[in-house]
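[agent] plan:
  1. take the single chain provided in the ticket
  2. run structure prediction with default settings
  3. attach structure tokens to the ticket
  4. add a short note for the reviewer (M.T.)
[agent] executing step 1
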Amino acid sequence: MPTDPERPRARRVVIDPEGPVLIEGPVEVDLPDGGTARSDRFVVAVCTCRRSRRYPWCDTSHRRKERRARTADPDTGPDTGPDGNGDGG
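[agent] step 2 finished; step 3 output follows
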């Protein structure tokens, strides 16, 4: 099936409910302040959570950061050094 040279190729957009919108690039994004952001990348991740420091581009700020509880070494206990007296040394 031949393609019409005057008709632009359709862009593929992938929507992830827990992440950014992925768009085959290059793309131009019209910003609310009237500016334009442009990316020439092959695939562009556009932020939908508005947490990104690089808005409108996604910087993975939407990912939840889980903190692990710190556990003390059972042999030395918290804040103890090799001599075990609690002064760290």
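[agent] step 4 note for reviewer: The chain has a mean pLDDT of 78.
[agent] ticket updated
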